[in-house]
Design a protein that fits this description.
binds pyridoxal-5'-phosphate, about 450 residues, Aspartate Aminotransferase, domain 1, Aspartate Aminotransferase, domain 2, seven-stranded mixed beta sheet, alpha/beta, 2 domains, 16 strands, single chain, globular
Length: about 450
């Protein structure tokens, strides 16, 4: 079949520029690169309002899973349950409808093994923030009980309650990793260390930061130096946990550092982190906002880590169409008012998230991601071998793929040239090209992308 890829105008084209001119009231208006035609966009093909058609390897920063206008999502959006949920917003913990219970019954089977509860909010960062709160609450209760005080804060003395209201009631911390990204709210941002611009001028908690191993790729070729880097990182984490003994509520980590430049570590490293967190009495919290929902070839990336026991809390977002976290029964926060938001459970978006999960299963997309992802990585490896001065360190698991250019400017130039040829790739870290194809992407699309990348690399060499 002939590829629909075609770029016939500059980007943005005249129609896109005229549309953008209407949108300056939006504080975010300066960032836009494409104004999509969301009727015409189809599968992996992103159409813009000037009639340009892009092979979309960006998927809106990994938000997209099933491609554009997937029949399953259209059917869900047109279903009476969706229309009723969208037209009747509810504060779901207090006032709900049977559609929420249907969602809960159905979504349970897609939760990571060992998870007893789900907590839903709007976005990924909010999900991380909520998971950290659950960890802090459990940590605080345990500490009080160990000190002979009541777990329930409402049973504390007036002085103790005043200390809580005055923000001096706890010195608990979260340990996160250098290079991590966990969101932009003031809580998760304190655990975020990927880019200066995310944090400049914003006050943050003084929480400790552990080293994340700077592994080289391909992992097999650098096994020895990577193992050394991981051992050093674990030793660093251990020292932090000793220094903050008794105060660490959570150790928070991404299974693959995504915004930080697609930095991978071995399953053994994560098992080490889990073991150290457990010894320190801290919750082991996995942020799967970007790695979750199938992009690594399993529904949850941590399924590939061989963890001896489930993590304590697993955060989700993006492809789930809402944010939140899954928790073991240990982190089930029951006391009224501690973990409540007006919009805990947007029933309409939950239906889209569930339809996405069901479609991933029905269409065998995890297998596709594993097969096509391995093929994509192999082809990126060939390209790097052809252009060794330009493209380095191809890496990935499933469809979470990246490679490096020599500098941030070269990376941006590479993406701009690819976009002008109708392939939409993205950026991560300082100088990496980030690829997050929709889970329906096939080898035919991969070959087309590689062809374009080869042309761009030849032009830049
Ligand atoms: C690992 C990770 N955590 C949290 C977030 C924040 O999600 P959101 O932008 O939906 O708040 C992101 C977003 O890219 C992410 O990649």
């Amino acid at each position: 079949m002939l590829s629909p890829r075609s770029v016939t105008t500059e980007i943005p084209g005249p129609n896109a520029r005229s549309e953008m001119g209407r949108g300056t009231f939006d504080m975010q208006h300066r960032y836009r690169s494409v104004v999509m035609d969301d009727q015409a966009s189809d599968g992996v093909w992103l159409h813009d309002v000037d009639g340009n058609v892009f092979l979309d390897l960006f998927a809106n920063f990994a938000l997209g899973a099933l491609g554009y206008n997937h029949p399953a999502l259209l059917a869900t959006a047109r279903s009476p349950a969706f229309v009723a949920a969208a037209a009747n917003p509810s504060s779901t913990p207090f006032v709900t409808s049977p559609s929420w219970f249907t969602f809960l019954e159905s979504v349970r089977r897609y939760a990571p093994p060992g998870m007893a509860r789900i907590f839903c909010v709007d976005g990924g960062g909010e999900g991380v923030e909520s998971a950290l709160k659950a960890a802090f609450i459990r940590h605080g209760e345990r500490r009080r009980v160990a000190a002979g005080r009541p777990a329930n804060p409402l049973e504390l003395t007036p002085e103790e309650q005043c200390a809580i209201l005055d923000n001096t009631g706890t010195d608990a911390v979260v340990v996160s990793f250098a290079g991590a990204f966990h969101g932009r709210g003031l809580g998760p941002m304190s655990a975020t260390h990927s880019k200066l611009i995310h944090k400049a001028d914003l006050p943050a908690f003084h929480w400790p930061t552990a080293i994340f191993p700077a592994n080289r790729f391909p992992l097999e070729e650098h096994a020895e130096e990577n193992a050394k880097a991981e051992a050093e990182a674990l030793a660093g984490l251990e020292r932090i946990l000793e220094r903050y003994a008794g105060r660490v509520a959570a150790v928070l980590v991404e299974p693959i550092q995504s915004e930080g430049g697609d930095r991978h570590a071995s399953p053994a490293f994560f098992r080490g982190v889990q073991a150290l967190a457990g010894q320190a009495g801290a919750a082991f919290v996995l942020d799967e906002v970007q790695t979750g929902m199938g992009i690594t070839g399993t529904l949850w990336a941590h399924e590939q880590l061989g963890l001896p026991t489930p993590p304590d809390l697993v955060c989700f977002g993006k492809k789930m169409q809402m944010g939140g976290f899954f928790a073991t029964s240990e982190y089930d926060i029951a006391q009224f008012g501690r973990m409540y938001q007006t919009r805990n459970g947007d029933r309409a978006r939950a239906l889209l998230g569930l339809a996405t999960l069901q479609t991933i299963e029905k269409e065998g997309l995890l297998q596709n991601v594993r097969d096509t992802g391995a093929y994509f990585l192999a082809r990126l490896g060939e390209l790097a071998a052809r252009f060794p001065a330009l493209l380095t360190e191809p890496r990935g698991r499933g469809f979470l793929l990246a490679f490096d250019l020599p500098s941030p400017a070269a990376r941006d130039d590479f993406n701009a040239r690819a976009l002008r040829r109708g392939v939409f790739s993205s950026y991560t870290g300082m100088r990496s090209v980030r690829l997050r194809p929709h889970l329906i992407t096939t080898r035919v699309h991969v070959d087309e992308a590689i062809g374009v990348f080869a042309e761009v690399a030849a032009e830049m060499s």
